[in-house]
Design brief:
This protein has 690 residues and is an alpha/beta fold. The protein contains 33 helices and 10 strands. It has a 5-stranded parallel beta sheet. A 5-stranded parallel beta sheet has the order 7-6-8-9-10, with helices on both faces.
Length: 690
């Protein structure tokens, strides 16, 4: 069995430390300090090229050097090689910048620098910096925390507060959920003028670790001039629902949540009981659920909650039974956090508070994406558009992601052809992932292109087979192309997991209507609990035809709905009549539109009375004057973002996990990389050095 050598450690005073100094200015000061600090093996080399040919380069723990930006091999060559070579991934690099080289500092940290020193080589300042690095390493602070501490100083000195906020968010999201990091994030929000978010993080810190109360109060007074106790806690905490069949797990979770000041914590051992409670009780602020549930599968439970209840309620999955293949579905159904069992109270609290906070103030790209989709799902169009606009102007959001989200918004707004075009463009940029396939499938479905819709949706299903709403769409499309046996089989999969889900009933209704089974359709309509579900169904069936100017087909669907609606559905009838009138208006059959509108206008308690009166006024004016009625949809534009060069793109997309090398993957400068760095990455010296 082959023994692997341990990675060189900065805390081991016998480790090799190399000073690279061609000018001779660095060696005497830094070498003397390191020896005074107890390092026994301090060597000096004249250039980075010499280090790369150094026979013991893999046994070096720490390099201290200048950037050497004009040399054939620069510190950026070395950083790139460290990203690519697993043996050098843990090499610590401290860079000494002249005043004229300060513009390179953000790029050095984004590519894996540990610490820096800038300006005059003052003995005391260098000694203090190096002692701080060693002290943090000895106290088991992570490499990321060390780099963040030093880079934070630089960002503060430049007053680059937005950059600092971005870095703190990334650190908190995936790396460091300590009370110290929560306070750093709170401070970054205060510095960027986002007081409400800062208060939220201070409250979270207090709940997470009440021993920090003095520091919290100090920060509150510094940035707001008042105590935190004078500020309203912005994190909602009404009712939490906990679902887990194992009482030994469920009870401790409920106890922890009770300490977080939830007004009530409701416990359930199966998903069906939890669902029945949730349908009756509306003031739920959080679900904490196992992935594998009794009575109803966890994925089905979550999808029903998202479809039937408030779509953007935070959902945390607490399970040890998740598999890699579940990851896509977790994103699709909008799970806010995943916590592994057995739970650790401190990390559990941090994750819960983060989920609550991110649902109110989404800051990370993944959180903003999720909130954008949930706002669309719950028809909060204005809020969804606001989130989308913030992502479109963010240079750190990849172009493909922007195009995809624009396409999803276009689909929601009824611009189906534009949604399809954007979906195809997103596929060219980022490939056929599940969200791209969903967009293309839904757009083709709305456009009446059943074969392509089915093709895209089935491909998405092969990647994530437990998405029940997508299975319903597949079943309806299978029916549309005459594959009735396949449709019944697909619906059987849905009904096995979620027989009473509204989206399952809607799909059954769609298939019954398409096949002309009017009695079954009428029975299904009579058994549906939610008029909103009916509205959603008829609108989704007819709107695609109307948008494509297939007015006769759209009107026929609405009229079929009126024939099949059971007695007592007056609100639904009003909605359908208004849509029929709208379709007649768009097809310039204004007299027929006026007939429907005048009849509905007499119903003063109609839920669409204002809309009816407004449209009727326009129709009557057009009939009198001959002026056409303009009904315009929204337009969606694409923002062109230049893509980095191939070599550099390959480096920053290497398989190292974010933060796997200091701040790499956790911080990206807003500015384009300077040509000096890009030329270093693209030159032949790199491959020669490797």
């Amino acid at each position: 069995m082959r023994n692997s050598m341990p990675a060189p450690s900065l805390t081991d005073k016998n480790s090799n430390v190399v000073i690279i100094d061609g000018s001779g200015t660095l060696r005497p000061v830094v070498g003397g300090i390191l020896r005074d600090l107890g390092y026994r093996n301090v060597f000096a080399l004249k250039s980075l090229s010499e280090y790369l040919s150094y026979p013991n380069k893999y046994q070096v723990a720490w390099i201290l050097t200048h950037p050497y930006i004009a040399d054939p091999v620069t510190v950026f060559h070395l950083l790139k090689i460290c990203l690519q070579d697993p043996k050098l991934r843990y090499l610590r690099i401290t860079v000494f910048f002249d005043d004229s080289e300060q513009y390179l500092i953000p790029f050095a940290f984004s590519l894996g620098t540990m610490s820096f020193h800038v300006g005059t080589l003052s003995h005391n300042s260098i000694r203090n910096d190096l002692k701080e690095v060693i002290s943090m390493a000895r106290s088991d602070r992570s490499d990321i925390a060390i780099a963040a501490r030093f880079f934070r100083k630089y960002l503060m000195s430049r007053e680059w507060y937005m950059d600092r906020l971005m870095m703190e968010q990334m650190l908190l999201e995936g790396v460091d959920q300590s009370s110290e990091q929560l306070l750093n994030t709170a401070e970054a929000y205060f510095l960027t003028g986002q007081e409400q978010e800062g208060v939220s993080y201070l409250y979270e810190t207090l709940m997470f670790d009440n021993s920090q109360e003095e520091l919290i109060e100090r920060m509150a007074n510094r940035y707001m001039g008042k105590s935190l106790k004078e500020c309203r806690n912005p994190i909602k905490k009404d009712t939490c629902v906990v679902i887990d069949s194992d009482e030994a797990v469920r009870k401790p979770i409920a106890e922890i949540l009770s300490k977080l000041d939830f007004r009530s914590v409701m416990e359930f051992e199966d998903g069906l009981s939890a669902l029945e409670f949730s349908r009756k009780y509306k003031n739920i602020d959080l679900f904490v659920t196992e992935w594998k549930l009794k009575e109803i599968p966890g994925p089905a439970f979550i999808q029903i909650v998202r479809h039937e209840l408030e779509a953007d309620i935070p959902i945390v999955v607490c399970s040890s039974l998740l598999k890699d293949k579940d990851e896509i579905l977790l994103k699709e159904v909008g799970v806010n956090k995943v916590i592994s069992k057995p739970i650790q109270a401190r990390n559990f609290i941090a994750s819960i508070l983060s989920a609550l906070k991110e649902s109110q103030y989404p800051s990370e790209l993944s959180s903003k994406e999720r909130e954008f989709r949930l706002k669309l799902k719950s028809a909060q169009t204005q809020k969804a558009e606001s989130i989308l606009n913030s992502l479109l102007v963010d240079s750190k959001v990849p172009r493909g992601k922007k195009v995809l989200l624009q396409g999803e918004f276009a689909l929601h707004e009824g611009s189906f052809q534009e949604a399809k075009r954007l979906g195809q463009l997103a596929a060219q940029i980022m490939g056929y992932g599940t969200f791209v396939l969903n967009l293309l499938g839904k757009a083709c479905l709305k456009l009446g292109d059943h074969e392509n819709a089915l093709n895209y949706l089935e491909k998405a299903n092969s990647l994530s087979p437990q998405n029940l709403e997508r299975l319903c769409a597949i079943a309806t499309e299978q029916s549309a192309v005459g594959r009735d046996d396949d449709a019944r089989k697909t619906m059987g999969q849905v009904l096995e997991d979620a027989p009473n889900a509204a989206f399952a009933k809607e799909a059954q209704l769609s298939i019954a209507v398409r096949q002309g089974e009017h009695q079954e359709a009428s029975n299904l309509l009579g058994n549906m609990d939610s008029s909103d579900s009916l509205i959603s169904f008829w609108n989704s069936q007819a709107i695609s035809h109307v948008k494509q100017q297939n007015f006769l087909q759209g009107i026929e669907i609405y009229q079929r709905a009126l024939r099949n609606l059971p007695p007592g559905y007056s609100d639904n009838r009003s909605f359908v009549r208004y849509n029929v009138a709208l379709a007649y208006t768009r097809s310039n059959q204004l007299k027929k539109a006026a007939t429907y509108l005048e009849a509905e206008a007499a119903m003063t308690h109609s839920p669409v009375h204002k809309k009816v009166c407004s449209l009727l006024s326009k129709v009557l004016k057009s009939l009198k004057t001959g002026e056409p009625i303009q009904l315009q949809g929204s337009e969606v534009n694409i923002e062109e973002i230049p893509r980095p060069s191939k070599n550099f793109y390959e480096v920053v997309n290497s398989p190292i996990p974010p933060g796997g090398r200091f701040l790499w993957g956790l911080y990206s400068p807003d500015q384009a990389f300077p040509k000096e760095i890009m030329s270093a990455f693209e030159s032949d010296e790199q491959s020669q050095a490797s």
